[in-house]
């Protein structure tokens, strides 16, 4: 979010601060993952890309001096855990001095550049945790600083091999039920299609219906202070009515229809985000039988992206 704090501190002039990116008109903007509607959009960056632009300072009263103890801009990466609001975990901090202590007597602009910035994590906004990147301008003053922030979104890219092992699982109750299900892969990009089949080998209980869902599990903290937040991303019925022995049911699930992120494992030792396929069978007495299997999600490089901007450090995200 863009935050602007203007204060005279009770003395002298004040100012309106804005940050303009060098390629602001042409750089892609994407929605920030959040519950608010309408969704806010921010400019998209990748690992290794430079962040350049200018800071505009417009004085509230032209010709009247604004005293300051220096002006600086920072590029910041923070992890904020909502139940630990007093602590922000800074994993990136770059800063540039724009002006030494002195006076501003007219509106002005300062260019800035942060070259080939390492952005090792993907931006994320969840139930209990947020990872964000932003630019922060501070006009230092004796009493109250003037501060302005501009949020940025970072996507991490990966490149998994086209062939990865299929998932095979069984659900069974001795002498009553034996089901096998198979998914074509264990790793999927965010616009992929999950293709699978369910085979009924033994059916001696009356199954009313079957459903498949995607579960997102956000884990924060560690040890006794670990918090797990499960969220059902999608749910759909894949069978209504009793199956017979030897029957098979095809599954086709389009991931692009959902707000998904890549799988994130132990990000800065603060949180993880994992995804599971959850198969649920319900019998006529409303008893539920389920099997859960983790899948790995990853972000594929857009074909429109220039090769030099694809972020070599995206390989970091390939660890499974």
From the structure provided, what is the oligomeric state, counting identical versus distinct chains? single chain
Order of helices and strands: EEEEEEEEEEEEEEEEEEEEEEE
Number of separate strands: 23
Radius of gyration, whole Å: 26 Å
Overall mean pLDDT = 86
Instruction: Work out the strand percent.
Output: over 45%
Q: Classify the secondary structure makeup into a structural class.
A: mainly beta
The coarse silhouette is elongated
Proportion in helices: under 10%
Terminal CA distance = 32 Å
Number of helices: 0
The biggest sheet amounts to: 8 strands, mixed
Give the uncertain stretches in residue-range form: 1-11, 310-320
What does this structure look like?
The protein has 320 residues and is mainly β. It is built from no helices and 23 strands. The radius of gyration is 26 Å and the shape is elongated. The chain starts with a strand and ends in a 22-residue tail after the last strand.
Which characteristics define this entry?
320 residues, mainly beta, eight-stranded mixed sheet, six-stranded mixed sheet, 23 strands, disordered N terminus
